[in-house]
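User: Before I run my own analysis I want an independent prediction to cross-check against. Here's the chain; please return only the structure tokens and, at the end, one sentence I can use as a sanity check.
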Amino acid sequence: MSRPPGAASGPRLALLVAGLSVVGSPPASPAQDAPPPADARVLVVGIDGVRVDVLRRADTPVLDSLAAAGFFSDRAFTPVRTVSGPGWSSMLTGVRTEKHGVDSNDFSPNRYAEWPDFLTRVERARPELGTFAVLDWPPLGTSADGGPLVSDAVDVKVNLDGDGLGYGPADSASVAAAAGHLRSADVHAAFVYLGDPDVVSHDTDSHSLAYRASLERADAQLGLLLDALHARPGYEEENWLVLVSTDHGRNDAGGHGGESPSETTIFFLASGPAVAPGRPACPPEITDVAATALAHLGIAAEGLDGRPRGLRGTEGCPAGP
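Assistant: Structure tokens:
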């Protein structure tokens, strides 16, 4: 993941304090979709640059517990170039580079107007649902490097500058902001990005103790987000789906961008009452994250490359290419 200086976007409503901006916008026009399952809600957590064989050796009790009771694959894959721009674009839009247009960490060629992130699709289809994102890599949420990937249509978008703050502190601030919002706001679809593991691996290597420790910190931060969900006054009546994944793996030197198995192999985790627990016979791919989130919410999305995975009634190996 490149680390250019961050730049705040020019939203309709914004607050910038100590490197943090909060973006709000009026809802988009509704679209026609099937009714969602009763009080369906989804939290997607993206951890940048996780090498799965290192993850297996790390002490990650939160992920381990979710995986044991949920739908999990550490043999999922990304068919797009193994850098962050196309990786996050594919995960959040549900389509590959041929459609969303991003093939590097320059997001300028994007076709997000046609293939938007899943939160923007929620806003377009069901503007009454609350959407929320916390992002500390600037192109994900601001105009830096041709962004934003996550549009300003999202009800509440918190942008932090991980390049300026450092991704360790920025991730901690991201989780604190997300936990506060998730604990009390009427949110139905949320995305939280954690970037520090990718940066630590670039600065050391993929087998370093520092990189493994960064994965363990991300696991603890995931636990804080789950604690916030469990503290919601109406949690027991809500149908939360938690999805966790990564944009790419890495090579031995700590980098990525190639086509080796350690770079193209990722993990896919789905947890919640709507999930059919188990290990899939055929591996999920990165685009399945957005497709699964939208399916859980009952929102139709034509033309996605991803397919719902792990939800009850959707398993079996997907047909088609």
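Sanity check: The first helix runs from residue 52 to 57.
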